[in-house]
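The following record pairs a protein chain with its ligand, zinc ion.
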Amino acid sequence: MEKRALSRFVGAEAWGFLAPEQQATIGALAMELVLAWSLDDEAAGLTDRDEVDTRIERVARAFGDHVIIDRLTEEVLSPLPPEVLSDETDNPRIPLAFGQICRACGCSQNDGCDVGCCWAEDDLCSACADLSPPPRSVYVHADAAGVIRFLSMPPVDNMLLFSGPDSAVREIVAVEARHAYDGATLLVPGLPEAEDSLQRLDALCAFQTRLERAWAARESEVLS
Ligand SMILES: [Zn+2]
Ligand SMILES: [Zn+2]
């Protein structure tokens, strides 16, 4: 299902709604908040200084950062029109500072999809993008007796006769190969009765050429 894009809160644009004195208050409070957080570290003993000033610890414990957060929240939210803070469906807007977010699943730089994903579009991850998988390939192989097999991986010996999209290649081989008496086994024509390696090679080359011609004919049919 196609989901609507997530609405974003663009701080730089919202700033323009504020009067200069409101901007000054918010700017100053934002800076003080950052300093309040470093006091938190002081209180938690996270600084690498040996001697912690107990007066600073005491102030940090007494205030934390919520005093400034509460004031900052009030200063930011009260002057801004509701549509700047939430979208037309009343969903809160997501801060632009969070970066790219997938509109389909909500994954982000900090929280990628389990299957692994990258950006297919600015706001759509590859796991959610409708990328159809490439057609499965099949490899046509013949053993020394001329018996044809369809492999999902390239054969390790050099008896690869042909490869391509699975169903199309199987169709062509079924037409071009010789059908054994069991009704199921496909054989390279002329190879079972070849008397030496030269004849075997001839049979293989002839069959490979037939497959290539059949493929070319099929391709031109598809295109026309
Ligand atoms: Zn996604
Ligand atoms: Zn994703």
